[in-house]
Amino acid sequence: MLNNTIAVAMSGGVDSSTVAAMLRAEGYDLVGLTLQLWNQRRLAGKEGMPEQVTGRCCSLDDVYDARRVAETLNIPYYVVNEEERFEQDVVRPFVQEYLNGRTPIPCSLCNNHIKFDQLLVRARQIGADRIATGHYARNQYDPARNRWVLSRPADHSKDQTYFLFGLTQEQLSRTLFPLGNHQKSAVREIAAQHGLAVAIKPDSQEICFIPGGDYKTFISAYLNEQGEQIPDTAGELVSSSGEVIGRHTGVHNFTIGQRKGLGVASPDPLYVIQIDNASHRVTVGSDSEATTQTLRARDLNWISIPSLEGEMRIRAKIRHRNEPAPATIRMLRDNEVEATFDDPQRAVTPGQAAVFYSEDEVVGGGWIV
Questions:
Q1: How many whole angstroms separate alpha carbon 77 and alpha carbon 123?
Q2: pTM of the complete model beyond 0.70
Q3: N or C: which end of the chain has fewer CB within 10 A?
Q4: Mind listing the pLDDT tens digit for each residue in 304-333?
């Protein structure tokens, strides 16, 4: 039987702070935990990085805000240092993926390897059976299927299930998403009602360890700090017909669907449609050539079903901001799935996630290859 103690993952933002206030009001015994993941001062001023980085997710400002909320609610609060593991499981893979010509999702890696994995470990160490987070998602047990089911939240504009597709049944069984049935505007009102100073705090929109979203500068500064050089992946820029129309300085400078910064003039808009890491060749073409009817995904995790048998009609989401699109999925060998869309999809990008939905339920997902 689960006890009354819940560990709340407190980022210092309004969402996780409101979760703590809601659960406290419901009578739960709470412990606030903040994961210290990245030293924002570590690369400051190096290789074009900003001299100062403040007001960001996981920054010292956020730790201060989380601690202040915990004091307001009169709950114990701890900062847990996970910088080493975060670098190993999130930052290094992020850099390597770009160097390999792929486009990673660090938030999903962080959720899978750090937030829900290590938080549960820490929670048990302090006597809590469950964790609660400020993610916008819904989670409930379905006895008919004997499975925990993850679903989209009431506020679809804040839906974060795309980043949560890797959660296991064990992790879901120990996790609460108290904001799943709330609109964002209502969450801010609840925060204000509880006297939380973060009620009007803006949301963070950036990757926590990359100031301004400039991942190219970050990769250069990080590798320089590590005493490593950016691998020479310069190569040819070619048209979809195979004609060489220019050269580029490295595959890490491109992502599928990219239009700006191609370094070549054209009377018609050009988009990156393929990145070949082996040959270092980047292919560009028209907008229509940047679409595809199928994708393959690997390293699958199934949530609402134990496994995929035969074919299944779903709606697939290929990036966080996209609405899920109708498609049919079928299993291939080597734990890969193929999704065939009813309508061609633009910029299907290796390294991103393909997440499959049935109505609002997350069927499962995997990494696009």
A1: 12
A2: yes
A3: N
A4: 999 999 999 999 999 998 999 999 999 998
